[in-house]
Amino acid sequence: MIFINRLSAWAPGIEGSEQWNEWAQGKREIQFSSKGPDLSFTEPMFRRRLSQISKMTIQVAHDLSLTEDAKIFFFSFRGELSRIFQINKMLIEENEVSPAAFSLSVFNAPAALASMAAGLKGGYSCIYPGNNSFSQSLTIAKAALLGSNAEKIVYIYADEEIPEEYKTFFRSPPYAVSFGLVLSKNEDEKTAFPLPEENESPYLFLKNIIKGGLCVSP
Questions:
Q1: CB–CB of 203/176 below 8 Å?
Q2: Cα torsion angle, 216, 20, 73, 40, sign
Q3: CA 23 vs CA 74, 80, 104, 215: distances in Å
Q4: Cβ(124)–Cβ(69) under 8 Å?
Q5: What are the boundaries of each domain within the chain?
Q6: How many whole angstroms separate alpha carbon 204 and alpha carbon 199?
Q7: Which CATH architecture has domain 3-80+108-211?
Q8: Distance from first CA to last CA of the chain, Å, rounded?
Q9: Alpha-carbon dihedral 82, 84, 87, 92, rounded to 10 degrees
Q10: Using one digit for the tens of pLDDT, what is the confidence trace for 133-187?
């Protein structure tokens, strides 16, 4: 059986474990904002050009105090959406793309940058599951854990603020969450890891595990 070990989350307008508990109880809301964490633990030149999704991913990975052999499993519905939009706009208006902008727009950029920021050497996997299914991503993460020699993996979900031009099509708040998936239950803070229903979103899943007693770190 799979268990969750430790939890971290970041979203605009929510700070600390107490406020996340208030959010889970419906007493506080995540802000629709492109604001990201300040990442004061990184070098200024490193964080200067990062997008919101990359900043959030780096923050939630950092908050788990990962060891250098940690393996990351990254999932997102939209990836670097704002940066991709700007690239498409540049192509239409200027018929060219900045190589630097393109290199940070790829789907694996947040996970790669989080690995760099934390000095991780365990590698990472990035996935976009079919049918926009969050539960499918957790099923694949479970299979990755069971099929590897690792005792645990770190699951990270993140999606950033949606550009104004796309809000006609969908709208959801920006946030990131990370947690450890382990095969054994040897510590009191671990709780049983229930796979969500097929139609459950990461938003509802996060609420449910916080309500279940798992505290957000730090």
A1: no
A2: negative
A3: 24, 26, 31, 12
A4: no
A5: 3-80+108-211
A6: 10
A7: 3-Layer(aba) Sandwich (3.40)
A8: 26
A9: -100
A10: 888 888 888 888 888 777 789 999 999 999 888 888 878 899 999 999 887 766 5
